[in-house]
Amino acid sequence: MRWMRLWMILWLLAAAGCVCSDPVNGRSYFCFGEVSRDEEGIIGAQYAPNFLAQAGGRYPDKELFAYLEDIVIEKMAKQSHRPDLHWTFEILNTSQPNAFALPGGRVFITRGLLLHLDSEAQFAQLMGHEIGHVNHRHFTRGQGRNAVLGILVGIIGLAERAVFFLAPDPPRIISGAVGTVGLASFSKFSRDQELQSDQRGVDYALEAGYDPREGAKTFKTFLELKKKAGQEDTFLTGLLSTHPLDEERIEKIEKYIRKKYPDVVDGKRELIVSHPPWAAHRDRLRRIQKAYDKYDQAVVLIAKVAENGKATSNERLAEARSLIVQAIQEAPDHATLRVGLAVIHFREEEFDKALAVLDKAILLDEKHFQARLFRGMVHMGQNLHLPALTDLELAHELFPMNPLPLFFLGNVSEKLEKKEHAIQYYDMTIERAPHKSEIWKKARDRLEVLR
Fold first, then answer.
1. What is the 3-state secondary structure (H, E, C) of 118-144?
2. Using N-to-C axis directions, what is the helix angle for 145-156 and 37-54, rounded to 10°?
3. Which fold has domain 277-370?
């Protein structure tokens, strides 16, 4: 009788939609109001633009992107346990090393992480790991839609630091932060979930023909760097905070390879470490990084000027300008570098120079969030309200969660005597801005005046 009652309970739960199965291993688990498969895709599509814009947009190397996209999508994701998902791949243009994936099959890696990979097989296993998180539904398991959306909003964590800290009225830079926005994975997955994804990374890389032992080498390298750095902030801080590593985890990866794939350990399979094009793509990326190293140094200098006021500002801005000009000479087709130069012109109220630089940046990348936002602000500074409106509207489309374009759209709408539009934009600003932040207060103040 006891087993019959238990069976009846399980049957009723299943009938109520409360028993789900892992798409990879088919194991059942209880799920109350969990995100559905269709909702996974909707959430991924909704939030992907925010992550893309927050991290400096796409890295502008079409050859590298096409090469890596083929590995991730065609050779791995579409051959994995959930091939019918709408899989996409992006290289984020930030020096901060990280990799993550959104529900529904949107996989990301940063320029900063790619730099530190020595082989194609290492890349494949890392991407297989992220595909594993998606396929096991680690982020959405046990989560309702509202909970998932709440976590995503928290992760984006944009506040007023998504581009530069801005004093919104009048628009002026008060602190630089381009390129320093933290990119977190969705959550600190449990140890079991990380191990599951480690195993999928091995499986998917091997199925694509890559040597999975290369991935273990990567983890060992990262762990050694972590040990050498101790508690100090390192280039791996963001990555290791969301993908924690220890020796036990590495041992389990190696044990999994030995147990499931003994022919790999015995050297009985011909496996790929890297195809010939990999070295050329990696070397080009590392050459371009020298330009971004200068750009990152310049951003730090601009931030110090903004934080410390007039003291030594001229010298620091001159040094920042020199670094960015050198960076542009080394990588003239990279829009992000030109945005950095425009920021300096903008701070010095050299609006014509800033506009010329931003025009070039947008020719290079018409969907560059920072370029659109700053050009909208420059147009505002020149009282060119309609061009400002166009740029700010597109900036909002590119980064919907960011309150800055919305606040400035409210400003422009006021100038154009569109009161109802202005109220709507300020309401949206308050919804997206951190509670009681400067921009939240400014939007509230404008609403009190308009209403």
1. CCHHHHHHHHHHHHHHHHCCCCCCCCC
2. 10
3. 1.25.40
With a cut of 50, list the residues of the chain below it in pLDDT. Answer: 9-17, 158-186, 231
106-110 and 19-21 strand pairing: unpaired
The count of other CB atoms within 10 Å of the CB of residue 82 is 19
Per-residue confidence (pLDDT) for residue 379, from 0 to 100: 94
Kindly state the tokens that stand for 192: 């079991």
pTM of the model: 0.86
CA distances from 57 to 86, 102, 324, 369 (A): 20, 16, 18, 7
Domain with CATH 1.25.40.10 in the chain: 277-370
Query: Measured at the alpha carbon of residue 256, what is the angle toward residues 218 and 104, in degrees to the nearest 5?
Result: 70
CB contact set of 279 (below 8 Å; sequence gap of 6+): none
- pLDDT tens digit sequence for 142-180: 565 555 555 555 555 543 443 433 444 444 443 333 333
Q: What is the per-residue pLDDT across 181-192, written as a single tens digit (0 to 9) for each?
A: 344 444 567 788
**Cα(373)–Cα(280) distance, integer angstroms:** 35
